[in-house]
């Protein structure tokens, strides 16, 4: 439980900072920056909870709100030096989507949904904050255009059900799926792999 | 019931393919294409169900998900030949919005809402998937700018209550409203009619 | 209660007209104009109610719908003369966000949420309709870029809790918070004050 909380907070920090950086490129004011940091961090989980009709987590857990505010302040003040932190941020973000994917899948399982829908929920939890960020910043969502990002989440979701199929303890299922998301994302970024371009495949 | 299911699936197919075509024009990757196909098909109904606070249909009915995946694969593979299917696609789309309109109106009636709200729900069910598609593709929604599309849904909704007023059997109400949406849309496209341009009217 | 209803209707009128004007600049058709007027007026409150999982107000209260339709018709017909009404519209809008802020804060309190979340809900109620309007019109939301707008709502929300802290009667808390929002917004616009530009502060 403690490890999950720490990963969750690391993910929120990474997502908040990515929101701050995107919104500052668009010359938003202080309020806009904070809102973009907020929706990037909690947007995916909020959509997931609204669709499942369960209570939205950040309404009652203030840890999220304080973390987002602190991370945003940090990002605004130290924005010129954030390049030094680039690798840490990328790592936080990768841990974050790994965690969000598994948490999303488990929320779907709790609601007794079909595995495919659960995997979709995991992917949504991990990716949709970034989609809302890009919509608010008036850009086509970056995850629709490049990078192995959502794909890592989808494969992590499949891994979850593949491992669970063998009746292994839930902690192993959790760690297995989490590791698959994180590994695929790391390998994809380090070796600059992206999805095959279907435009080239068929043209 | 069987006829409704078939119409529904035809509508989902048409909406998925329109999502695929729009997203491919934006050079999205495979994941982006699938997501756009998905939100175009189920976005309107999802917003409707969230506002009504009833369970979201595609969470538990896998037919939607399988149809969307199959239709998207088909559209990507045969995208160069889709012009041959253009008329079929337009027909599917027209049947789809006719059906979605009536289903949306009836969901509003079940929730005991005012007829105007019910008509708004019918229109939203039919049109909002396309609105989300256009937002995600960073365009001003096409239905806000041209074509008799939402207008056909609105008039179909009025027809529903007009016929229901005479205590006719529900199947006749259903078919009457459905036919009005489909006929208006067909006539508008065949004769290239669009809403009067209020900018010209008043300038 | 009567005063609140009047303020609410004035707010809906102002928001509808601002939606009409934005959508006409984008050359939308009659349907698009009406939809933009609608989401600008009720979008913030709808998001708030969906997140709180309480019934959405305009589904059952037709006053909103009739007011939006009437205000939109008015705005389309008299759009060339709306400059004469500019000051009234600005005043309506200011009264509207003041009211929406306080109502949003109180809805959060009723759901027993943390004060910071309540203030966020007040700000969201007041500002999010304009955000959705700008997304649908394919622009970066104006409140993220300039003007003391959301900031007035946030400070009004803090005022609410500051006054409530002294156990004053709820009507005084209401009027105090409302006045702070309205005053800050009036002062900011009259003296052309905006948030300090953090890009200049740190560059």
From TrEMBL, chains A, B, C:
Pfam families: Gly_transporter. Keywords: Cell membrane, Membrane, Transmembrane, Transmembrane helix. Its main location: membrane. This is Membrane protein. One of its GO terms (cellular component) is plasma membrane. The lineage of its organism: Bacteria, Pseudomonadati, Bacteroidota, Flavobacteriia, Flavobacteriales. Residues 6-79, 91-164 form the Glycine transporter domain. The chain crosses the membrane at residues 6-24, 31-51, 57-77, 89-107, 113-136, 148-166, 172-191. InterPro entries: Gly_transporter (IPR005115). It is a multi-pass membrane protein. It is found in: Cell membrane. Belongs to the UPF0126 family.
